[in-house]
Amino acid sequence: MGRAVGRQTSGWASGVALFAGVMMIVIGFFEATVGLVAIIENEFYVLTTDYLFEFDVTTWGWIHLAAGILVGVSGFAVFAGVLWGRVIGIITAVLSGVVNFLYLPYYPVWAVLIIALDVLVIWALCQYDRKAAQGLGVI
């Protein structure tokens, strides 16, 4: 899993990696909030009919609450600057993207926005270099 010899990570990629950690915390907060709204106020979301992944809104609330907590905690692991933090960050960002893809019929604009942010987080964590981040004073 080593880096290619002579390959440099740009300062921009390291900055986006810092952004990714912050965004994971923010995305986690947003997802947890969406989950709590669905759990507390079951009639808030408009439902479509005949969707393959049709769950009760309360079920989606619990799914989003759990995903939000996982993504938020993973954001803090990214700040640790260790490989396992990045791996967990990528896995939870993928999980968040899948959850929001399945959630498209309930709140489409929100789901697309979170999916786009998840893709940016995944890219940033794949490009992240701990030594470059240390040079920026991140770690």
TrEMBL record:
Domain DUF7144: 17-129
Keywords, alphabetical: Membrane, Transmembrane, Transmembrane helix
Transmembrane segments: 12-40, 60-80, 87-103, 109-126
Pfam annotation, one family: DUF7144
Stated name of the protein: DUF7144 domain-containing protein
Organism: Actinocorallia longicatena
